[in-house]
Each structure stands twice: as structure tokens, then as C-alpha cells.
Amino acid sequence: MSLFAHGPLTRFKAQYDPNNQEFSISGSVRPQTIEELAPSLALLKDSIDRVRGILYVNVKRLAQMNNTAFHAFARVIIDACRVRPDLKFVIITSSVVGWTTRKFGRLSHVEPTITVEQYDSAFYPGQSFLEEGGFIPILRTQTNMTWRHERAILPRHGMRSGITMADICCGIGDFAVLVQKEFQPSRIVALDHSKSSLAYARQIAADFDIRGIEYTYGDAAAMLLEDDQFDLVTCRHSLQIFNRPELILKELYRICKPGGRVYITNEKISHCLGEPRSETIQWTYNELSKLFAHFEMDLELGPKNRRCLVEAGFEDIRGESFMVTNLDGDPQEFADVVQSWEDTFAGEMAQQRGDRPEFIKRFRRGFQDHIFAALHPKGYAGWPIWVASGRKPL
Amino acid sequence: MPRNVTSQNNVIETSFCKMIEFDIEFNSFISEWRHCAYISNYLARTVSHNRPDSVLYSNLYSSAFNELLEVAFRTRHPAGVLACRVSRDGETDRIELTFPCTPEEQQFYEYAISQTQGAGAQERYLVSLSGDVAPSRDMVLLELAVDYNATLRLEAVDADTVTLVVDLPFGGLAN
Ligand SMILES: C[S@@+](CC[C@H](N)C(=O)[O-])C[C@H]1O[C@@H](n2cnc3c(N)ncnc32)[C@H](O)[C@@H]1O
């Protein structure tokens, strides 16, 4: 069961999911009087009557709630604790919304059967491999390599000077910096959920005196950014790492202006190639695709870009692909990137899956052969990327 | 809506730099509840863009500011002006909200603000949270102190206006 309350400013949604015994409330709740909340409060009471054991109260996507509303909901929960000592309440907050954990946290001091959990990591199964630390320098080289192509591609997908844009899952933010220099949008919001990447991005911006990029911490699946704000929303190499990319696309769609465009890039990793030694290379990248699939990530997403955009409601879909190769620039860059892939994917990630040493040895071999091809005076090594964008209907 | 908005970096009496100042007829302010949210969201966005994490900051700032505006709204004074000045000193953002109120209400605010100070504030907040009465304006102020680490102070301008001075210390905040 779910309830919507709509107005220009109090836009929220309350719903109860009996399968998960979860009551959730999201949006902005700033009523003048408690009466305005009556249907939602009734829904909460009703949920309490139905559950046994634990009621989860999900406020992860609650952007705003004034005190009038907070106390009304708190009252219902506190009262329920008193008449139903058998019941536990678990309130789930998000680190992305600054005030919720602290505010709801007070309730556990009032009633010990109320606990508050801050939902933070584990957005997608493979997250820990990619989010923290080690991957940073390599993301930088990767972006330099893709930029050679994308700078020419982007204007065909709505990039131009003066626009407002957002780069969601921005990583260390270097794409935003390159865009800023080349196209001078009037505003860039760059959002990611990795604190270390954002810290790095802010440091770079400070060191190089780059202004006008708003680095923002957030969850791409539930952003605090308002609706209909950006002329162009980019999300690069990232939909492919979520087990439910459609949830992210829905958010990209939401924050995009009607008539604006959403631009995505993804890989089809099994199509990485090289000569000589094409067969071992091919084998390894096929296996790499399976390894990611094991962690519920679809590194074959690239050619499905179009389908994703159509299903998310976009129109005027444009798509193209390009191949990053060892001939684009310094072949050593290409080799460095492949080396770091080997380190992470044949290292920690394969280990975590429980792969045997013989497999890992063969797996590593393909990466080494790809490097060999990249550095070979007559060799060729490629990494293909699929680009697509769609327009949000007016 | 705001009758006059100025945005400049004058150094005022302290090291706080003025960012925005506006005033609005109190009558027109209280004609619509939504004005609280409009003003708080708009100002929050405006003052947050140069904070390390503008979106997170703006969300927090808007939450706190909206509560203050709702407090002023609920005085429901039929005349006068609501004046607001927003300034910044490093990590701290200051909101000064001046609005009409009766002498009795001034006393009420004095008392409410004294309750936000000192070690007992958190205890008092929890007591009021678990109590049965609907939240009142003093509780809103207490909550700003307890949950937002705000420092509150009162300046009585004259017999029928009051200024709430609220310092919000979340400038360094970034994830
Ligand atoms: C493969 S990287 C791509 C980074 C960047 N776009 C690039 O092309 O270099 C994926 C990024 O998504 C970020 N990410 C993962 N989960 C996220 C979430 N729930 N919300 C926002 N960003 C997330 C990661 O921190 C990481 O920086």
C-alpha cells in the first residue's frame, strides 16, 4: 500500500511493504499541522498492527522532515513501543542525508527497542573492489585515454558551453575537470559515493585552483538533487557496476531537465582485443566478464545502452562506440591500465571468488599478453566503449 | 517575494561577512505556509554552492533554517516585518531572524533560549521527545541546539520585535 502527497513543496510518499515488514517514507515532509499527515500516520499505525517481531522504518530517502512531522511519527512509534513490548523498531537512515541519523538516533535513548542503522555501503555487491583506494590512479589514466575520443563525441550528445550538467558516479572527478576546461558549462555537479575519491577530487581542484565544480557525496540511486535541473547528465562506466542499473537510470532521468539529455558509457569487456596473442587475450576477457557477473555486475552492458535508455523512457536515442587503442597516444598508458586491471581482478577479486591458483595463472596470462600486444612495435591492443544518450521528453 | 535582497561581502561588526539580507512584510510571509520552505530552500542553495559538499550542506542548512522560519511563522503577528540576515565566518554560518512579537513572547523566547544552553539541553530534549504534548516552539529551538550543534542567542531589539541569532557550525562538513 502506498500514499502520495503532492504539492509544490511537500512532496512525499509513504508506503508499507508487508513482505519486508518495512514502512518507508521519502521526499520532503513539511506540514503545517499534523492533520495533513493523517493518512500516512494511519498507514504507520496500521503497519504496526500487522507486523510481528521487527518493523523496519526506512527513511533513507527522506530529504526533509520538519519537527511537526518528526514528532508526529515519533509519537506513533514511541506509543507503540509502550503497548507492544514484543515489537522492535529498526530505523534505517542514510549517510547521504546529513540530519537523519542524529535526529532519529535520539529515539533509541527514549525507547531501547528502537534502534537506528545507517545504511551506507553495500549498494552493489562488487563495490568494495572499486570504491576505495587503490583504483584511483588508474581511473585517471583511463579517463585521459577515453577523453581523446569523448571530447569529439560529447557535442553530438548535448554538450555545449553554458549548460548545467551533472556527472553522476564521477569517481575522482577528472572528467568534470576536463569538461570544465573544454566546454565551460555554467554549472557542474559531480557526485560519487566514495569518500576517498571525493577527497582526492577536492584536493586536485584546490591544488590547480579549479573552481565551479561542486563535488558532492551521494547515492546515485537516491540523490538529494532536485528534479528537472540539468541540461546534461552524464554517467560514465558506472551503470555496468550496479546490479540494478535501472534504479540509477531512473534517478538520472529525474534530475534531467525535460528536453535535456542523459549520456551514458559502458563497456563490453569480452570484446577487448589484441594482436599478437589474440586467443589468450580473448580467453581472459571472457573470463573477466564472468568474474564480474559472479559479483552481479554486467561488464557486457555497452551494447544494451540503447535498450536501457528506451526502457527508462528516453527518446531520440543516439548511440556510437569507440575503441581506445595503443595507437592513440603513449602505448605505455594502455599497458599501465591493463596491468592495474590484472592486479585488481586477478588479485583480490578472483581470490574473493575462491579461484584456484591454476586458473589465476591462466587468467593473468591474457592480461600480460594484452600488454605485450600494446607494447609490441607491430602490435595492436584495443578496449571498446559504447556511448549512448537519450532525451527526456518535454 | 522578499522585498529587498542584497548580497555583498561587507564586514560587519564581527568577523562575520554578510552574504544575504532581505525583509518581507510579516503579513505576506504568513499568508502561505509554503513560504517557509521556499525561502529556506532558496537561501540554502544560494549560500551552499561554495561549501565543500554543496548538496549535503544545502540539505542540512535548509532543514535548520526552515525550522526557524516555522517558529517565526507560528507567532502569527498581524503586522511588522520579518527581516533576515545571513552571514558567514569560516566554518560557521549565522542566521539572524528579526520578527515582531509581544513582550510576553519575548519572555517566552528568552526562557526557551536559556533552555538550549548548558549541559542539560540534551536531557531536556529527550524528556520532551518522550512526553505526550505536541512539539512546541521551544522544543524546536532545543532541537537545533542538540541535533545541529547550533548556538542560539536572543537580541531584543525593542518592545515588540525580537532577533534570534543562530550560529550553525557545519561549514567544514564534507563526506
Ligand atoms: C567504475 S567507476 C567510474 C568512475 C568515473 N565515472 C570514471 O569514468 O572514471 C564507478 C564509480 O561509481 C561510484 N559509485 C559506486 N556506487 C555508487 C553509488 N551508490 N552512488 C554514487 N556513486 C557510486 C564509485 O565510487 C566509483 O567512483
Describe this structure in words.
- The complex is a heterodimer of chains A (394) and B (175).
- Chain A is α/β, with parallel strands linked by helices and 394 residues long.
- Chain A folds into 2 domains: 2-121, Transcription Regulator spoIIAA; 127-391, Vaccinia Virus protein VP39 (Rossmann fold, 3-Layer(aba) Sandwich).
- In chain A, 41% of the residues lie in helices and 26% in strands.
- Chain A has helices at 38-50, 67-83, 100-105, 107-110, 127-131, 136-153, 174-183, 195-207, 245-255, 278-294, 305-311, 331-353, 357-375, and strands at residues 2-5, 12-17, 22-29, 54-58, 62-65, 88-94, 114-119, 164-168, 187-192, 213-217, 230-236, 256-267, 273-275, 315-325, 380-391.
- In chain A, a hairpin with a 6-residue loop joins strand 1 (2-5) and strand 2 (12-17).
- Residues 121-125 of chain A have low confidence and may be disordered.
- The radius of gyration of chain B is 16 Å and the shape is globular.
- Chain B is built from 6 helices and 6 strands, in the order E-E-H-H-H-E-E-H-H-H-E-E.
- Chain B has 175 residues and is of the alpha+beta class.
- Chain B has a single domain (22-168), classed as 2-Layer Sandwich (Heat Shock Protein 90).
- The termini of chain B are far apart.
- Chain B has helices spanning 26-29, 34-48, 54-75, 103-116, 121-130, 137-148; strands at residues 4-6, 17-25, 81-89, 92-100, 151-158, 161-168.
- The relative contact order of chain B is 0.17.
- Bound molecules: S-adenosylmethionine (SAM).
- The site of S-adenosylmethionine (SAM) has 22 residues of chain A, from helix 5 and helix 6.
- S-adenosylmethionine (SAM) is lined by residues 123, 127, 130-131, 139, 142-143, 169-171, 175, 192-194, 197, 219-221, 236-238, 241 of chain A.
Attribute tags:
heterodimer, A: 394 residues, alpha/beta, Transcription Regulator spoIIAA, 2 domains, 13 helices, B: 175 residues, alpha+beta, Heat Shock Protein 90, 6 helices, 6 strands, binds S-adenosylmethionine
